[in-house]
TrEMBL record:
PROSITE patterns: AA_TRNA_LIGASE_II. Transmembrane segments: none annotated. It comes from Amycolatopsis pretoriensis. This is Threonine--tRNA ligase. It catalyses: tRNA(Thr) + L-threonine + ATP = L-threonyl-tRNA(Thr) + AMP + diphosphate + H(+). Keywords: Aminoacyl-tRNA synthetase, ATP-binding, Cytoplasm, Ligase, Metal-binding, Nucleotide-binding, Protein biosynthesis, Zinc. Coiled coil: none annotated. Its EC number is 6.1.1.3. One of its GO terms (molecular function) is threonine-tRNA ligase activity. Belongs to the class-II aminoacyl-tRNA synthetase family. One of its GO terms (cellular component) is cytoplasm.
Length: 409
């Protein structure tokens, strides 16, 4: 396994600057391309699973977090309030209070439930300098977060569906969990009173058939959770994805729905994150794949290698025609050196006078194998098919065999 801090910088994915601050990495173009592809994949995965996407501000009044319980139970990890116009505003440590208010913005009927709300949003943690490390632990986080508001009878099915979605995404990304953990409350005043036994029983049922460890003292202050643990290059474990059952915040925010009996009832809130923070997810992908990302995630998907300046106009015309591919031209240096420099790119194509004259393309795969020259339109169509995100296709749809998808490392 590779160290993402070293490899990420070598590959030009991200960087840091002391003038910006510790724990606040910036994304370079190649890293931003990986990040965008990952975000788009998760967005589409959620949409297909019935989630509705929202946007909410990264600031909230201190009172919001007093109601949610974060101020009392999570204050040490929050940034201090800012006095603005006679109000105290706080950088949010979590998205769930905002989503609770979105649910509360109008009356709800049982016919709308389960209501699945998802967002890729910023949040902030006041991490100590000694705890920071690369992309794994940062102070400004882009969180893939979602909340399902449902009836008590729907909770188990929704939590199970959330865990299945996490496992589906991990298969697509090539991530293997280190272990599943059922995080339970422990001794002390960290945890709010509530229906903990019912929430724990639901999550135990969801985990039935999977190997997992039950660990006390790791629950959220408002409820137990399933943590999907990953390991970094040094063998250190961290949590990437979670499924949580929360009876507390619906009570705190007075959330209601009108049932079939025309009476008002309290929904249950299922917190769910498929890939956790984008930063930690990309760190894991770098370490797992060693920079040889799956073709659909690769920052450059096709690299064109013109033999001389005479082939540059043809290469540029191909770039201009490839709106749905991430293509670059490498024209400096010897051909052998250019091929070696692009060893992590899924597809490379050498362009000489013969290819220009015949309007053909011969594609070289990441493992060094080559595909026979084909008309350029056919070759580009096959590359495009090979870099599509891994969606299941209807059985009736015929798939162009195209090129084999280059293996990731």
């Amino acid at each position: 396994m590779h160290d993402h801090r070293k490899l990420g910088r070598e590959l030009g994915l991200f960087g840091t600057d002391p003038l910006i601050g510790a724990g606040l990495p910036y994304w370079l173009p190649d890293g931003a391309a990986v990040r965008h592809s990952l975000e788009q994949y998760v967005h589409d995965l959620e949409r297909r699973a019935g989630y509705r996407h929202v946007h909410s501000p990264v600031l909230g009044k201190r009172e919001l977090y007093e109601v949610s319980g974060h101020w009392a139970h999570y204050r040490d990890d929050m940034y201090p309030p800012m006095d603005v116009g006679g109000e105290q505003l706080v950088l949010r440590p979590s998205l769930c209070p905002h989503h609770a208010l979105i649910y509360r913005s109008r009356g709800r009927s049982y016919r709308e439930l389960p209501l699945r709300i998802a967002e890729l949003g910023g949040m902030f943690r006041s991490e100590l300098s000694g705890a920071l490390g690369g992309l794994n632990r940062v102070r400004a986080i882009q969180l893939n977060d979602a909340h399902v508001f449902c009836t008590l009878d729907q909770v188990e099915a929704e939590a199970a569906a959330a865990l299945a979605l996490i496992r589906q995404a991990y298969d697509a990304l090539g991530i293997r969990p280190a272990r599943y953990r059922l995080s339970l409350p422990g001794p002390g005043g960290k945890y709010v009173p509530g229906n903990w036994d019912a929430a724990v029983a639901i999550l135990r049922s969801v985990l039935d058939g999977l190997p997992y460890d039950a660990v006390e003292g790791e629950a959220a202050f408002y409820g137990p959770k399933i943590d999907v643990q990953i390991a970094d290059s040094a063998g250190r474990e961290s949590t990437l994805s979670t499924v949580q059952v929360d009876f507390h915040q619906p009570e705190q925010f007075g959330l209601e729905y009108v049932g079939a009996d025309a009476a008002k009832h309290r929904p249950v809130m299922v917190h769910r994150s498929i890939i956790g923070s984008v930063e930690r997810a990309v760190a894991q992908l770098v370490e797992v794949h060693g920079g040889a990302f799956p073709a659909w995630l690769a920052p450059v998907q096709l690299r064109l290698l013109p033999l001389s300046a005479a082939e540059l106009p043809y290469a540029q015309s191909l770039v201009d025609s490839c709106d749905d591919l991430r293509v670059e031209i490498a024209s400096e240096g010897s051909l052998g050196a250019r091929i070696r420099d692009g060893r992590l790119v899924p597809f490379q194509a050498v362009i000489g006078p013969q290819e220009v004259a015949a309007r053909q393309l011969s594609v070289r795969l990441r493992d060094g194998s080559r595909v026979d020259a084909r008309p350029v339109e056919d070759a580009l169509a096959s590359v495009l098919e090979a870099v599509r995100p891994p969606w299941p296709r209807p059985a009736s749809r015929k798939r162009d065999p195209g090129f084999p998808v280059p293996p990731s490392r």
